[in-house]
Amino acid sequence: MMDWSQLPYDLIALIANKLHAIEDFVSFSAVCRSWRFVYRNNHWTPTRRVPWLMVNENHGSEVCTRRFISMGKNKAYKLPLPMAHGRRCWGSTHGWIVTVDQNLIISLLNPVSQVCFDLPPHSTLENQVQSPQPIVDWFSFILKAAVFKIRDAFVTMIIYGQDYRLAFHRHREGSSWLTVPSSHIHFIDVVCFGNQVFALSVTGELYLVQIDGPDPPRIIFISSSLPDQNGWLQKHLVHSSGQLLLIFHNPCMSSVLKFKVYRFDFNANTWKVLQSLGECTLFLDDSHFFSISAADDFKSNSIYFAMDSLQWFWGVKDEWDYCGVYRMEDDTIERFSLPNMGEVFPHYICPTWMIPTLS
After folding, report:
1. DSSP conformational letter for 124
2. Cα 199 to the chain's mean position, in Å?
3. Of 82 and 296, which is predicted with more confidence?
4. Which residues contact 340 (CB under 8 A, 6 or more apart)?
5. Exposed, middle or buried, 145 (CB in 10 Å: 0-12/13-18/19+)?
6. Starting at the edge strand that comes first in sequence, how are the strands of the sheet with 280-284 ordered?
7. Separation of CA 120 from chain center
8. CA 304, CA 284: separation in Å to the nearest integer?
9. How distant, in Å, are the alpha carbons of 175, 204, 298 from that of 292?
10. What span, in angstroms and rounded, lies between the C-alpha atoms of 19 and 7?
C-alpha cells in the first residue's frame, strides 16, 4: 500500500496545484503531516481558482456567520465572521474582502484564514465635507473598494465621498490614505491592468492613474467617452484575458437586463465593440467585475451576475431573480443552479463575488 507521506515535497505541491477549489486544498491538508506542511506553506498556485459568492449574514445566531456559495462545487458554507458583522463588503480576486462599518472603520478580512486588520482611518481621506451632521450615510460613503496586486504588493483602492474621489493605500505602508488629485473629475470604477491602474469617470472618460514612483500620484487622460453610452445605468471596467474591457449594464431594476461589451484598442486609442468573450467568464455584482478562464464548472462567453435583493425585499421579484447567467452568444438569461440555502432570507442582502485564498 502506498505511503502518501513519503512522496517528495515537490510532487505533493504538484498534486496540490491540480486542485482548483480551496475547500479541496483544505481537505488535502488532512491526508498526513507532510501534505499539511505543503498546506501550511501555502504552496498552492493552481492554474485557475473557483469563485465564491458571499451572500447574507445569519441574523439568527449568537455568532455572526456569513454564507458562501462555492460555484464550482455548488455548495453553501457557513463561516463564522464576527469581524464582518453589520458591515458592507466588497470582494476581490486575491482572497481579501474590504469592509466598512457604521463608524466608517475600513478593514481587510480574509474569510478563510480569518486574518483581519484595519486600514488607515477615514479621517486621513482628503476633501471630505465638514459639517455637524454625519459626512454621508455610512453605507454609501464608499462607492467602490478593490484590492489589487501591483508588482507583488497589495494595494487597496476606494472611490469615496460625495465627489467620488479616488484614494489608495499600500498594505502595511504608512498610516494614511493617499488621495489622487483629480480636480472636478468624479470616478465610478477602477481596475488593475498589467500592473497599471485605470479609472473610469462618471461621464465615461478613461484615465491612467499613476501611483508608483517618486512623484505624487496623478491621473493622465487616455480616452473620451463613447457616444452611445446614454441609456445605460452602469459602467464597469474589467481586465479579461489580456484585454481591457468596458461593460455597459442595465441592472435588474430595468425592464430588460442587458450588457454591451467593448475592448480598448491601445494602438488606436479607442473603444471597439466586442461581440464575444471567447473562453472567458465574467462575474458581476453591484460594485465590481472580474474575469476567469472558463472551465467545465462555468459557461464560457457568459456573465454571471448577482445583484442586490432590493426588489425582492419589496416583493417585486422572487428570491434569487437577481442572480443569473447572461449568455452573450444568444442574448439570453438563465437562473443560477444554487444549493439549498437552508432558510428564506428575511433581510436585504448585497451579494459579492470573491476568489478565496489562504494568503
Report:
1. G
2. 16
3. 82
4. 76
5. buried
6. 289-293, 280-284, 302-306, 323-327, 332-335
7. 20
8. 6
9. 34, 25, 10
10. 17
Model confidence at 53: pLDDT above 80: yes
Give the separation between CA 253 and CA 199, rounded to whole angstroms. 25
Residue 43 grid coordinates: 504552496
Per the CB < 8 A criterion, the answer to whether 313 and 348 are in contact is yes
Please state the separation of Cα 113 from the chain's center in Å: 18
Q: Give the three cell numbers for residue 126.
A: 482628503
CA distance 333 to 311: 18
Question: Strand 280-284 relative to strand 302-306: parallel, antiparallel, unpaired?
Answer: parallel
The answer to whether the CB of 77 falls within 8 A of the CB of 67 is: yes
Kindly state the percentage of the chain with pLDDT values over 90.
42
Note the pLDDT of residue 339. 64
Backbone torsions φ then ψ of 58, nearest 5 degrees: -80, 110
CA neighbours closer than 13 Å in the CB half-sphere of residue 353: 22
Q: What CA–CA distance (Å, rounded) separates 95 from 289? A: 15
Name beta bridge partners: 166.
159
Strand pairing report for 88-90 and 332-335 = unpaired
- Residue linked to cell 428564506: 344
Q: What's the farthest any 2 CA atoms get from each other in the chain?
A: 73
Helices (H), the chain: 9-16, 22-28, 33-40, 138-141, 310-313
d(CA 101, CA 258): 32
172 vs 45, more confident: 172
In DSSP terms, 262 is beta-bridged to 246, 273
- Is the Cβ–Cβ distance between 257 and 251 less than 8 Å? yes
C-alpha cell at 76: 453553501
> Looking up cell 462555492, which residue turns up?
70
231's grid cell: 441609456
